[in-house]
Amino acid sequence: MKYAYLIFFIFLVLISGCVNKTEKIDLTVVQEPGIVLNDSSVKAAIASVVSPKESYEYYDEMITYISQKLGWNIKIIQRRSYLEINDLIKNNEIDFAFVCSGAYIDGKSDFGMKILVAPVVNGNTTYNSFIIVNNNSNYTSLTDLRGKKFAFSDPLSNTGKFYPTYRLYLLHETPESFFGIDEQGRNNSFFTYSHDNSIIAVAEQIAEGAAVDSLVYEDMKETHPDVIAKTRIIETSPPFGIPPVVVSKDIDPFLENRLRNIFLNMDKDEEGKKILTMVKIERFINLNDSAYDSIREMRKQIQ
User: Fold this and answer.
1) pLDDT at res. 21
2) Structure pTM?
């Protein structure tokens, strides 16, 4: 039922003529807890990297665990885009956040966002961008998608926007010039604001291609194998620094150290290990900012 709703909504947006340029498509409705003045809770922000409902469920047990270890109530603030999350951090309205690598380097440059910790997944602190197509198509590379409908995830997403834009830059193209417009004058590229929704769009042939986060794609192999079976990877990017947990440069040092220690020690007790296993993370580690230099270099080229 959930996928039927998403597919129907995307279809309505595409035929309605409301996408006149590379814009977001608001695929689902998500409750967005507000920021309350004088609220003493520690606030953690989550962007809807996967669909909003699943984003919340994915982090709920981890946040509960951190709250218990911290001895302080943690309120989850969920937003649809990385830009909204970055703005909350910039304005010191939240204490820590789960963001993508692209949002991190943007926040670091803009207002001094800091890495708190980074996850280790399958022994790695890197991930990739996958360019995917429908399994029934005959496309074999990104160049085959000229003039086709293409799904990006988020404007600040490294895997879902920066990398495919860089690939087009190397071809002396932009998303607008390469994917073009349809017969109604609408842009063939659009934002889903969710990696899993981009995957669904390709699986259901609403988009002919998409750029998605390898971590989300691999996770959906287990959680939604029927969807993944309808797709095929045609290109894999070089490895990039993995999406980190971040804080504001103005965070209280005591809180920053407490949070970091809790994350770094999650894998050392049974409850923490159980939660990490559930979210497919081995452990959290300290990761140097230089791990994201390759993304910075790539982004310089496309700006």
Assistant:
1) 36
2) 0.85
